[in-house]
Amino acid sequence: MTHSTAAQAAPTLSMQPPPAAGFFRSRFWRRFSRHRLAVAGMLVMLVLTFSAITAPWLAPYAPSAINMRAIRNAPNANHWLGTDGAGRDVLSRMIYAGRISLSVGLVAAGIALALGALLGLISGYYSGNVDFWIMRFTDVMMTIPTLIIIITVVAAVGPSVYNVMLVLGIFGWPGTCRLVRGETLSLRERDFTLAAQCLGVPTMRIVFRHILPNVVAPIVVAGTFFVAGAILTEAALSFLGIGVQIPTATWGNMLTDAQSLTTLEQMPWLWLPPGIMITVTVLSINFIGDALRDALDPRLTR
Amino acid sequence: MGKYILRRLVISIPVLLGITLITFFAYNLAPGDPIDAMIDPSVTMDPADLSRLREQLGLDRPIIVRYGIWLREAVQGNLGYSYRSGEAVLDRIGRRLPATLQLTVTALVLAIGLGIPLGIISALKQYSRLDYALTFFAFGGISIPNFFLALGAIYFLALKLKLFPSHGMGDPDADFFMASRLHHLILPALVLGLDRVAGFLRYTRSSMLEVLGQDYMTTAKAKGLAGNIIVIRHGLRNALISIITIVGLSLPALFGGSVIVETIFAWPGMGQMAISAVTQRDYPVLMGVALVSSVIVLLSNLLADIAYAIVDPRIRYN
Q1: Nearest to A149 among B30, B281, B290 (CB)
Q2: What DSSP character marks residue A25?
Q3: Which residues of A touch B245 (CB under 8 A)?
């Protein structure tokens, strides 16, 4: 940590093994790995990331290849998870869909965190009128049921992977903004800020070099949960047919067909696997976020 | 107390204005204008006629002016007309709103009724098996997408075990209409409420744990008060303060979730209407749904703030 916490954490610093001792012996990892489920979640995410990157080699079929001779086949030796209504291989689509879910989650989180952190820093550092209006804006954004607005906007600008990322990011910042503002308000009153101000350090530099590094930990934790939320929202949009469009495979739009009761009842291989994938992914990310909160929070010394 | 409520009301006004601004501009992102939407594209129209029509309807005016006009009408209860049916948007919403409220309120009541007690138990038995099980359940509830949960519930509970109907609101001709209504309500309300149950559980647990560690709890114990009294009167009452906030904050998500749950369970509410409006590009209806649900959330947050003041005297006298 930087200036402020360095002074505070000085007594514990000496107890920390030197960085050369490696990541697995760091205080961060000791705290993080106490959460067994989070470690399992990390493994799941590593496997998923790997499969998303190597999808073209891993997937047995092209994800959008239509095969009219194998429509709605139950799982068999050729198609391990069966085929969908256009004879596309469910397993291959699942593997490719991971790319969409993960990248939508990450990009949307990146946009939301950047916006939220920026507005939160401005709001917290300047306070007064600027703060008042930014906070009212945040109130507005937190009152509107965003899913309904997101549906409208995505329908208006046209549903595509990029638009979904953008819209989720643009409507996702208020939580981070409030969080960063709260932290900034208290950091602004600390001695190290005063010292920087006395030395004539430009405001921009104080905000980005002295305050921002001290709010990185809560932002990372909030960001992790946001990724999970964004993956869920993307899946919901695609499920409703408003998000990413077929033939591009996403876990959400693979479940769309199951809205018909016959598919739901007679072809569970079409909707169970993608649904389980979303749940496992989001669950893993949430476990990681929970452990990160424990591991990164300097105030919790256990 | 009166002064406090008044101040909250005054603060709500800019928020309400902001809501109308965002809804209006989000809707104006859509390509084309009402004229394009209303006129059958297969009919060829004279461009001069089109521009005269636009002028008549004020569509050639700057967007800020149009917002002003729209706001003036909206305040008087005119939210425009559906592109498809020509009906007044407010009438359509009025017909759909009771079903949505029935669903969301039931889900909220279930979430509060299950989430808070489970959270208290989880906190009181911290690090027990039960606590771990509840924590795992809570993580699961937050992580499972509600549409997948809905499909799973229909598959297992409605289609396989035939315990509940798979869709609709109930048969008005049934002998016991109320019973049939309730029977239809349980599954969608549970699905809609589950992630809130999980959220409230986690939140109650952590705020109870925080309160249980306070000095006044030790004092109460030292005075020799009975365990339950301490937990309820000293613990819960203080923990409730932050729980009320989180209940208020979760309302928008509840309305958002109702869109999905209503669509899957063919529940004839506002959310289902919104989804069909999306596919029909019926923007006035969508805008109306967004506006009405935001206003409901705003009003409920006001109620939450008042409840807050009742539970916490510090706020009242500030």
Answers
A1: B290
A2: G
A3: none
| CA-based nearest residue to B247, from B72, B123, B109, B91 | B109
* Subunit contact A148:B139, Cβ cutoff 8 A: no
In sequence order, what are the residues at sequence separation of 6 or more whose Cβ sits closer than 8 angstroms to the Cβ of residue B211? B217, B234, B235, B238, B239
Query: Which residue among A149, A258, A283 places its CB closest to the CB of B143?
Result: A283
| Tokens read off for A30 | 């000791």
Contact B245, B307 (CB under 8 A): no
φ/ψ of residue A9, rounded to 5: -85, 5
Under DSSP, the state recorded for A77 is S
How far is B256 from chain A, CA to nearest CA, in Å?
5
Distances (CA, A) of B4 to A131, A138, B298, B313: 22, 21, 16, 11
> A19 Cβ partners below 8 Å, 6+ apart?
A26
Most confident of B32-36, B80-84, B125-129: B125-129
How far is Cα A13 from Cα A10, in angstroms, rounded to an integer? 5
Residue appearing with tokens 């049916």: B85
CB contact under 8 Å between A240 and B275, yes or no, is: yes
Q: What is the pTM of this model?
A: 0.88
* Cβ–Cβ under 8 Å, residues B221 and B288: no
Interface ipTM > 0.85: yes
Q: Which of A143, A149, A156 sits opposite B297 (nearest CB)?
A: A143
Tell me which of A280-294, B20-34, B265-279 is least confident. Answer: B20-34
pLDDT for res A21: 63
Q: How would residue B73 be classed by pLDDT, with cut points 50, 70 and 90?
A: confident
**Using one digit for the tens of pLDDT, what is the confidence trace for A31-53?**
888 888 999 999 999 999 999 99
Predicted confidence (pLDDT) at residue B318 exceeds the cutoff of 60: no
How many angstroms separate the CA atoms of A265 and A267, rounded? 6
Computed over every residue of chain B, the mean pLDDT equals 85
Tell me the per-residue pLDDT of B136-189, one tens digit each, with 9 for 90 and over: 999 999 999 999 999 999 998 888 888 888 787 776 666 667 778 888 899 999
Sorted by sequence, the CB contacts under 8 Å of residue B24 that are 6+ apart come out as B67, B70, B71, B287
pLDDT at B35 over 80: no
Beta strands in chain A (DSSP E): none
Q: What is the pLDDT of residue A233?
A: 92
Please state the rounded mean pLDDT for residues A7-27. 57
Q: Which of B27, B154, B263 sits opposite A264 (nearest CB)?
A: B154
Residue B225: predicted pLDDT: 79
Which residues from chain A sit within 8 angstroms of residue B264, using beta carbons?
Answer: 259
**Phi, psi dihedral angles at B221 (to 5 degrees):** -65, -40
| Nearest Cα residue to A159 out of A100, A91, A115 | A100
Q: How far is A34 from chain B (nearest CA, A)?
A: 14
Tell which of B24, B127, B147, B265 to mutate to test the A interface (max A CBs under 10 Å). B147
Tally of CA atoms within 13 A in the half-sphere of A241 that contains its CB? 12
